[in-house]
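Dear colleagues,

As part of the handover before I leave the project, I'm documenting each prediction I ran so the next person doesn't have to rerun anything. This entry is a single chain, and its sequence is reproduced below.
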Amino acid sequence: MTSGLTPFSLHDGQLCLGLQPCLPADFFTAANTFTFNFLGSCEVVYHNESRKDTFGPQGAKAQSYRITYADGANEEVAGSLIQSKGALAVREGKVKRIDVMLG
């Protein structure tokens, strides 16, 4: 429900992370966010400014990610997938927060 059925996948031999939540619009706070814990140590915050459901053909989908690593470094990722290094860092517990911009 919060991360999708298969958040990790392989594309062209590279590990990728694509968060695909299935959340109704009313699950989002007044600030248009929804927060959950992913893999035990990574806080994920969905930002849904359009305040749409995140499922169905008209649903809000991941447009970009802001990754905050455990060492304090930040990375912006455009598109619906976090690829290679970033996806591996999430899986290895080296990411403390991911902000996902939905649209």
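The longest strand covers residues 62-69. The chain is about 10% helix and 40% strand.

All the best with the project,
I.
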